[in-house]
């Protein structure tokens, strides 16, 4: 890995920090999570807009943490940015604090790559994942400076495009989105962007651009279609082309586009590594698209047909590459139903040893209560997973037959037994209530299933009772599914079912989670909505509706008012719909045979199942060995749903996948056997020669320095927690956007840097192992640092010798220099490594050493004149104090709570050691001492006192950390911590060093 020379890296960002160019710099530090708005993350792609055919920004209608976790965002970011003539930047919805600041300051919502307002892009893409994010679609457009309604946009405004699952029933957004991409973006997005970009560069009018887009497959331009109310349903439906649509030659019905072979689009392994903690902060890989199971409520199972699997070798490569490049400690496999992926068993067996080597845990989403054989559960447990989640979806067999859920009570209980026997501590089950034909017995069945699972654990006589949680959501009838015609349960019925479940769960000692009934009801109104719901949406938005999927922000009253204002009768959208009548989404063709959904709906009402398609008739799971797959000649099940799978090719591909994975397993087994043979031979040779291996350290020299781990013997972390380690002190600078990250964020970011550099960090020995790091004094968010410091336990090649005191000073310096070089190549932008040294046994900790720091405040040009004289006069006068109101906390019910406040006065006499103005660099510098008993003065307070005005933290930086030249002499002069080097404790207090603990003083310095 090439690293930027240190001097160059520091110089690039020195002086008045380049970060001040961020349009939100003045108020970012006051936001709840500044990391959401920073940009500049590692692996972010910034292109020069001047050279591009089309500038595209993907505006995700939710917070950064959510959007960054979404696999579709990753796929599109990679897909578009791979094209040299296109760019894809990102923008996310701001939380209320940021929205208020932007409005008050009249600042626009900007992209995170080039800080460009949304209105300046050629195309604004809206990711449509969930109906309750629609108000955020409007929020992003309005704050981004884009007129809300398509009809109000001029030729200079961007073209707004929408894509994602809800673009298959998009009428409520028809007024606001210029065109929808119906289907999978890989097929058409780059071509669409180029078409739009070229026409815009040529100065063509907006309607001409939309007409050109409508000629492409999968593109729906709402203004090209006429709508009327269908009398049989009272819903507004598309009845034909508008005049403009006729002129544009738009198709009467828009067919979904989809990728035939996923391997044509390798899963991206590079993506900006989130600064603010993403909900799923890990290397996730989509292993399949589509699903074989045909659950009748599931829209994804219908609109992502047919099932398409990635080649196993590509999956293994993508997972390992993603974890290595990103330095993640967690990877995950994503599919609509992981257990139904044909090669899942050998795939997990191929992945786990590689991930365990890297101390990376593996998350597996969407498990079913079958197909979990014993060895697979053992493998998953090895990588640190202690709970599993299943989705039986319904509580009785009858109901599972209605929804076509291919799972039985026996499957659920057998899986529970296997899970609990292996020491898993948590099992969570997802259910849906309010399904068509549901009775009270079916609702009670949800609790009964939970109770039976708990009984399995009880009968095993486990030392610790595992937790069993049922998570219950409400059924929302979704377009393009067999249940699209079914009614949504009334809110009263759903409320009473929720109450029944909550009461019952308490009695049965089950954990329970339920979804807000009102949110589900509104989701249904938009899922089956027509263009009139767009008017309701705009009214609710203007009245303040935002983040409707977030409990704390959802206001049902706003929605009721908006519905009333437009004279909407909600039951029109929630009641049973007649089969065979056009619906608001009928003009969008999912390529399913007419009659397929209808026949599934009829089978549901008769409780008849349709066993999974694409599997051998009668089989629940796929074959796990080549032999079994070859010997089974049974035909694969197919219902001719319309997407025309090639079943012969499907069978062949699976056999090839099993062959590849089995060859990989054989190779690995032979490599392991060879490694073992070589180790045995070496040990025998050493024994025969009678000479000890010089790299081995006698155990007694290490005894007492490594506590025994209480982790399970087969845990991937046990070896790590007990391995010899070196304590390393790293000095680094923080420049640019990284200054807005807290120590908590750095606890995630710094271990990633180690992993990327191939350096293993030690983990704590608790049940939730944490990287062993100890920080220097914390800085306020936004404040830069020319010097920060961290101690960490690293498992280096010669750590055993280090712990045994066998390394010379020269050895230690060499090891530290090599380490520093490796880490510089892996450090995230803005974290500039300055120095590294191995901390010797018995040395003082950071907390014992740090006694103060030097700070610099950047001055405005007109603030410099006469300032030094004023500052020197203040120092000469003495008696400087700082007064602040401090909260008083008391412990109540085991928690510390604020009970009032008191006035604290801090005498600066001994604390503020010097201050002077550097007129040339326009800096006010001062030295602050922190090793004095009592409350510490904050740098921001001192700067405000000296300047006579408040100072934003991002205008300040810490230049140097200081320590006493003689640590045991109270008034010893302060010297640079880095120059001081290692200082041993007095002999009587010297202990062999233990794992790093956080030694940072609590106060901010
Ligand atoms: S064509 Fe047959 S196998 Fe393919 S998704 Fe449809 S029903 Fe399943």
Unreliable segments of 5+ consecutive residues: 1-5, 9-16, 691-695, 999-1005
Beta-strand level of the residues, as a percent range? 15-25%
Helix coverage percent of residues? 25-40%
Biggest sheet statistics: 10 strands, mixed
Instruction: State the separation between the terminal residues, measured CA to CA.
Output: 34 Å
How many H/I helices? 33
The averaged pLDDT comes out at: 88
Rg value: 31 Å
Bound molecules: iron/sulfur cluster
Description:
The structure is a single chain. With 1005 residues, this protein is of the alpha/beta class. Helices cover 34% and strands 18% of the residues. The protein contains 33 helices and 31 strands. The strands form 8 sheets. Strands 20, 21, 22, 23, 24, 25, 28, 29, 30 and 31 form a 10-stranded mixed β-sheet that branches. Helix 6 crosses helix 19 (531-542), helix 12 (344-357) packs parallel to helix 24 and helix 16 (440-459) runs parallel beside helix 17. The structure holds iron/sulfur cluster (SF4). The site of iron/sulfur cluster has 11 residues, from loops.
């Amino acid at each position: 890995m090439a690293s930027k020379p240190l001097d160059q890296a520091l110089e690039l960002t020195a002086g008045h920090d380049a970060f001040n160019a961020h349009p939100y710099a003045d108020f970012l530090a006051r936001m709840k999570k500044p990391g959401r708005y920073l940009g500049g993350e590692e692996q972010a792609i910034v292109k020069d807009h001047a050279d591009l055919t089309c500038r595209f920004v993907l505006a995700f209608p939710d917070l950064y943490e959510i959007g960054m976790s979404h696999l579709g965002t990753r796929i599109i970011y990679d897909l578009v940015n791979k094209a040299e003539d296109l760019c894809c930047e990102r923008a996310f919805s701001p939380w209320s604090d940021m929205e208020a600041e932007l409005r008050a300051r009249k600042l626009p919502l900007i992209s995170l790559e080039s800080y460009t307002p949304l209105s300046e892009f050629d195309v604004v893409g809206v990711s449509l994942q969930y109906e309750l994010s629609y108000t955020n679609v409007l929020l992003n457009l309005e704050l981004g400076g884009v007129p809300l309604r398509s009809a109000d946009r001029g030729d200079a405004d961007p073209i707004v495009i929408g894509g994602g699952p809800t673009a298959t029933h998009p009428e409520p957004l028809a007024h606001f989105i210029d065109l929808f991409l119906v289907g999978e973006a890989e097929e058409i997005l780059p071509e669409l962007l180029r078409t739009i970009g070229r026409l815009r560069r040529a100065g063509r009018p907006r309607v001409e651009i939309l007409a050109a887009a409508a000629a492409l497959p999968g593109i729906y331009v709402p203004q090209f279609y006429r709508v009327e109310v269908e009398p049989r349903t009272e819903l507004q439906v598309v009845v034909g082309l508008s005049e403009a649509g006729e002129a544009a030659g738009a198709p009467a019905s828009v067919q979904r586009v989809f990728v035939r072979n996923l391997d044509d689009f390798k899963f991206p392994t590079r993506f900006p590594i989130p600064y603010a903690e993403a909900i799923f902060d890990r290397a996730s890989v989509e292993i399949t698209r589509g699903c074989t199971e045909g659950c009748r409520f599931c829209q994804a199972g219908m609109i992502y047909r047919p099932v398409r699997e990635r080649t196993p070798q590509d999956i293994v490569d993508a997972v390992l590459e993603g974890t290595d490049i990103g330095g993640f400690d967690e990877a995950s496999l994503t599919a609509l139903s992981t257990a139904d992926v044909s090669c899942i068993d050998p795939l997990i067996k191929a992945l786990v040893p590689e991930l365990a080597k890297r101390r990376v845990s593996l998350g597996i989403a969407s498990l079913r209560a079958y197909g979990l054989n014993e060895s697979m559960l053992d493998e998953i447990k090895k990588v640190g997973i202690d709970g599993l989640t299943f989705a039986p979806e319904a509580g009785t067999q009858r109901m599972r037959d209605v929804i076509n859920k291919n799972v039985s009570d026996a499957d659920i209980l057998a899986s529970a037994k296997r899970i609990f026997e292996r020491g898993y501590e948590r099992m969570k089950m997802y259910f849906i209530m309010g399904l068509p034909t549901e009775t009270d017995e079916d609702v009670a069945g949800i609790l009964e299933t939970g109770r039976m699972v708990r009984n399995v654990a009880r009968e095993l006589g486990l030392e610790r009772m595992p937790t069993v949680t049922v998570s219950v959501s409400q059924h929302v009838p979704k377009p393009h599914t067999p249940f699209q015609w079914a009614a949504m349960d009334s809110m009263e019925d759903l409320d009473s079912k929720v109450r029944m479940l909550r009461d019952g769960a308490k009695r049965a000692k089950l954990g329970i989670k339920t979804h807000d009934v009102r949110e589900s009801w509104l989701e249904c109104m938009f899922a089956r909505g027509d263009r009139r719901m767009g008017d309701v949406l705009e009214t609710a938005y203007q009245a303040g509706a935002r983040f409707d999927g977030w409990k704390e922000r959802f206001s049902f009253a706003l929605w009721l008012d908006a519905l009333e204002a437009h004279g909407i009768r909600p039951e029109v959208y929630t009641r049973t719909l007649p089969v065979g009548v056009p619906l608001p989404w009928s003009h969008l063709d999912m390529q399913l045979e007419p009659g397929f959904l209808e026949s599934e709906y009829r089978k549901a009402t008769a409780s008849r199942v349709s066993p999974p398609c694409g599997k051998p008739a009668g089989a629940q799971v796929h074959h796990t060995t080549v032999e079994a797959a070859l010997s089974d000649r049974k035909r694969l099940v197919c219902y001719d749903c319309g997407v025309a799978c090639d079943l012969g090719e499907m069978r062949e591909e699976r056999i090839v996948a099993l062959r590849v994975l089995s060859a990989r397993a054989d190779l690995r087994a032979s490599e392991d056997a060879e490694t073992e043979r070589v180790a045995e031979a070496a040990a025998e040779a050493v024994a025969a020669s009678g000479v000890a291996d010089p790299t081995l350290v006698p155990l007694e020299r290490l005894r007492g320095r490594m506590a025994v781990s209480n982790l399970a013997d087969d845990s991937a972390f046990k070896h790590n927690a007990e391995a010899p380690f070196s304590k390393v002190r790293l000095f680094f600078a923080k420049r640019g956007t990284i200054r807005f990250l807290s120590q908590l964020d750095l606890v995630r970011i710094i271990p990633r840097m180690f992993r990327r550099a191939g350096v293993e960090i030690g983990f704590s020995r608790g049940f939730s192992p944490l990287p062993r790091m100890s920080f220097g004094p914390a800085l306020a968010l936004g404040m830069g640092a020319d010097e920060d410091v961290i101690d960490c336990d690293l498992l280096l090649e010669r750590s055993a010798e280090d712990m045994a005191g066998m390394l010379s000073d020269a050895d230690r310096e060499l090891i530290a220099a090599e380490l520093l070089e490796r880490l510089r190549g892996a450090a995230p932008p803005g974290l500039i490594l300055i120095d590294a040294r191995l901390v010797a046994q018995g040395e003082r900790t950071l907390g014992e050493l740090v006694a103060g720091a030097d700070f610099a405040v950047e001055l405005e040009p007109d603030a410099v004149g006469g300032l030094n004289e004023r500052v020197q006069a203040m120092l000469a006068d003495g008696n400087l104090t700082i007064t602040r109101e401090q909260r008083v906390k008391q412990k109540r019910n085991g928690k510390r709570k604020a009970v009032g406040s008191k006035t604290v006065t801090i005498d600066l006499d001994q604390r503020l050691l010097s201050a002077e103005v550097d007129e040339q660099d326009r800096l006010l510098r001062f030295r602050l001492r922190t090793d004095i008993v009592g409350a510490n003065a904050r740098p921001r307070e001192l700067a405000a006192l000296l300047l006579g005005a408040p100072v934003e933290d991002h205008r300040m930086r810490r230049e140097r950390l200081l320590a006493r030249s003689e640590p045991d002499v109270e008034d010893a002069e302060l010297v640079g911590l880095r120059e001081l080097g290692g200082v041993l404790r007095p002999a009587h207090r010297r202990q062999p060093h233990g794992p790093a603990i956080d030694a940072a003083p609590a106060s901010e310095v």
